[in-house]
Structures are given as structure tokens and as C-alpha cells.
Amino acid sequence: MPKPAKTHLHDLKLKLTQGVFYLLFLAIILRLFYIQIIRHPQYIALAESQHWQRREIPAVRGRILSSDHYPLAANLKAYDLYLITKDFSTKEKNDSAIDELAKIFTSRGIWEIDPDLDTPEKIINEKKEQLKNSLLDENTHWLLTEKQIPEETKKVIEEKFNGVFFERHDRRYYPEGNLAAHVLGFVGANTAGEDQGYFGVEGYYNGDLAGKPGWISLEKDALGHPIPIGGYVISQAVNGRDLILTLNRELQFLLEKKLTEGVEKYGAKSGTFILLEPDSGKILAMGNIPTYRPDHRENTPNLAIAQNYEPGSVLKTVVMSAGLQEKVVAPSTTFECLGPLTIQSHQIRTWNNKYHGTESMTEILQHSCNVGAAWLSQQIGLKRYLKYVHAYQLGEKTGIDLEGEAAGIVKPAQDWQEIDLATAAFGQGISVTPIQLAAIFAAIANDGVKMKPFVVEKFKLNSQEITVQPKIAKKVLTRETALALQEMLQKVVEKGEFKWFVEQAGLDKFSLAGKTGTAQIPKEGHYDPHKTNVTFVGFTPVEQPKFVLLVKLEEPSTSTYSADTAVPLWLEMAKELVIYFGISPK
């Protein structure tokens, strides 16, 4: 017998009610699962934050030392100053605390005011007004006033004021001022307000130098005060490592001084030098003018590694490397230099429009003959030429351990035309960095083996030291080819266009090898004949080179030629270096 309609309706309501209860029960279970399992870590952290006070223990940043273990970057004790707004006053209670604090900040250089750019009184009054308004804010209980107060200033403030407290926050300090500034880099604040290294060693090795901060958690009462007999948990900070550089402090100082004098003497826009050890890749000295003070945190790029430029004839070493290694030519191979060479309707001329007749490959380098270099590139061909461009690792970073390195500019093979090959042979249409050029000559000096350049020799933490081993970057040439090229570059110095300068410097009794480069600077699709980059790279003694030295000047005004500018400056530096290294005359 069928159930009455009322009974069916009752059953349906009952099932719906049960379903709702089941859903509610399931929702409660899911909510509990979410709270107790999924959100468990967050709620534990929230509970702990109400009962525990956690403070960071800063790690001490590692020092940067020269090769003789002298600190180039270290730390000074410094403090962040906080004012407790309701208690801040002078201890005598009869002076304006803000006025007194302003006097201290101004007299001790905490407030940096440039009298040439600012109106000092106006700036000081504005700063005082800002401070006063902050102290009057009822919602402010304590106020961070200034960062990195020196130890001596801290003592003065503590003696004079009530309602102040300090938190230690060491300040980066560079004892030698701007010495090796571009190698060191600097420390500034990141977006989170934390110390971070930028550029150079400070940037590249920031993780090693910074260390890892620790923390301490103290149990606190309902008012937020630490409980004297309460519990605590501590995780010690791991201090940063000290870094010992390959940089020779004495040579760095000497070459920076010489470069400064040279930039001024030749009216150059900028200057760069690199001194490296060819058989290891160690950077013994590196610098640029203009420079800066690292503790002033200026963003001045390290031109030695960051400036892409067309170097000119100094790059003839690459096309000559290819010609000799591929046995297309020998040093004595000749060609006829009778006039301009026409390629794709372009005329390749010598730098002085003088032509040399029958000319050997060695004489191409001695005369710095663009026509000869372009002719040689035609004999080699694009594929083999680019093989050596890439073997010398042009168009890619050397991997030097400094932040901010550029890679140079080498076009993809499919974009090259015949004229591009010809001009690249004498250093136009292809861009390199000074460190790439120095590394090319170091490879030639090191019997064809290219070493990876580096500046950090040791990592030190407490009593433990880790020494960085030199690394082979590439075997570019056979020893036979390298020796032939060394001899050719020696004849460039002994019999080339600047032989007179070598004699005047008193270095004609030493075996020197090297090559000049003078390149017009490209400006909006053409080359400016009145503005050049001039470079000289050389090494000595040729038989067993102690160093490779690169000198580059940007836009010298006294002469546009490297033989008149970069060469005499290089010789001035080399004269001091042969004495320092104890190099004997040949």
C-alpha cells in the first residue's frame, strides 16, 4: 500500500535536514583540518610572537685584504640612534634637546651638508623641524633618528641626553680611501634596507662576505617586556669570510699615481690600467681614472671590465694568431703593400696614407699596417678568423670574479660581410673590454695558454684558509705559434714606430713585446676623426714574462695617437715595474 503524501514529504525534509547536518559537520572537520594542519605553522608563529620577542643578531661582514694582508675594506663600530619620544631631553633639562642634538649632528658630520650646493642654515632648520614633528606624533613611541653613528659620537650623546638608546650596526670602512675602489666595489642598502655589496669584490662575493645573521628569542610578559627568568632560544650568527686578494698594494698605489698623472698630462677623458701575471691569471693591480671613494657609494663602473670599445690595431694580434696557427703565413711571408685595398666598394688605407711596398707579416705589425691586416684576413677567411675570435673568448665574459663585467660585442657569423672581416682584422667593428685584451696578450706571453683572470686568492674564516687555484680558460695556440708571435711583438717594440720612446725611457736594454691600438670612436653611424681610444698592451721579459700591462686612454686631447700618449705612459709604468720585479737587462 503506498505511503501517504505527507509521509513522503516528512521523509524528504528529514533527509534534507540530515544532509545539511552532514555538510555542516564536514565543513567543521575541513575547517579544523585547515586550522590544525594546513595553518598550524602560522598559528604557532602567531602564538609565539605574542609570548616571545625575537631579535636578529647581525653577522660581522668579512674584511677584504691586499696580498700583504693589509685591510682594504674593514668595519668600524657604528650605531643606529633611537629616541624614546616621551623621555627624550637633555640631562640638564634647561636646553632644547633638538637644538643640542642638531649641533652634534652638524659638527660631527652626521648631517652631511655641502655649503657649495646647500644653504646650511636652511637645511639644518628643515631637519630640526622634521625631527620636532616626529617627536610630537602621539602614535610614535620611539624614533630611529640617524644610522651608523660612530663610537665617539655615541659616547657624547649618551652623556648629554636622556631617552636615547643605540643598536649596533657596523659601518663599512675603507682604510686606503679610494685605492683600488673599482676592484673593491662598495656596500649600500638593498630594497629591504639591509647591507649589500655592489660591484667589484663586494658585489661578486656578497654572500661570502655578509655571513649569516643569527637570532635570539626571549620570553616576554603581557606588556611585551622580556621576563628576567624566562626562557630563551639563541641561534648564533655566522660571520662573513675575510677575502685575501691578489692585488699588490704597493703596485696598485704606484700605477694609480702614474695613471692620474698620465690622464692629466694627455688631457684624457678617462684612463685604465691592468697589471696581471700571465702564467696564473692573477690581477696584480687594476684601476681607472676618474675614481671614487667606496664609502661614498658612488655608482662609477669599472672601465677595465665594463667598457666595451673598438680597440684598433692592438687586435691585429688575433688575425696574426689565426694566420700563423693555421699555417696560412709565417712571420717572413710577404705581400705587396702598394696602395689602398678595395673591398665591397670600400677602400682600406694605412693610418698615415703611406704604403710600404714588399712587407713581411712581422712588418705588418711593426708598421701597424691596416692594408696588410685586411689582406691577411682575406687569406684566412671568415670561418677560420672567427675560430680564433672565439678561442680568445671575445664576445663572452672572461669570468673574472668582479661584479659588473661586460662581454664585448661580436656579431653572429651570419651577419658578417667581407668588409666586416677586413675591418675587424685591424680592430674596428668588433668591441672588447680592456680585461679581454689583457687576457689575449697574457695567453700569447704564456705560450698560448689563456688563464682565467681572478682577484681573490684566499678565503679565510677564523684560522682556516682556502686557496684559489689558477684555472686554464683555453689553450689557444701551440707553443710554437706563441713563441713566433712573441718574437714578432718584440720586434714591434724594438723596431716599430715608438722605438725612440723606448730609448728615451731607458728600456731599450730590456726585452719588451707589445702592440699599440688607436681607434676612432664611432658616433651616430660614422667615426669621429678627432676622438680616439688609445691602447698599449705589452709584457716583459719576453723569455719568461713577469707581467702583462695594459694602458688605455679615452679621448686624449694632446694627440689622437697611441704612440704619443698610451705608449710613453706605459713605459713610465714599466720603468718602475722592471725595478720592482728585479728584471735584468737582456
Integer average pLDDT: 87
- The total tally of domains equals 3
Using the coordinates shown, work out and report the CATH topology of the largest domain: Beta-lactamase
Sheet of most strands: 6 strands, mixed
**Major β-sheet strand ordering:** 9-3-2-14-22-23
Structure description:
Helices cover 37% and strands 24% of the residues. Helix 3 packs across helix 4. The chain is built from 19 helices and 27 strands. The longest helix is centred in the N-terminal third of the chain and has 34 residues. The strands form 9 sheets. Strands 9-3-2-14-22-23 form a 6-stranded mixed beta sheet, with no helix packed on it. A 5-stranded antiparallel beta sheet has the order 16-15-27-26-25, with helices on both faces. The protein has a 3-stranded antiparallel beta sheet with strand order 1-12-13. The chain folds into 3 domains: 107 residues, Penicillin-binding protein 2a (Domain 2), CATH 3.90.1310.10; 90 residues, Alpha-Beta Plaits, CATH 3.30.70; 332 residues, DD-peptidase/beta-lactamase superfamily (Beta-lactamase, 3-Layer(aba) Sandwich), CATH 3.40.710.10. Strand 15 and strand 16 form a beta hairpin. It has 586 residues and is an alpha+beta fold. Its main location: membrane. It is found in: Membrane. GO terms for molecular function: penicillin binding.
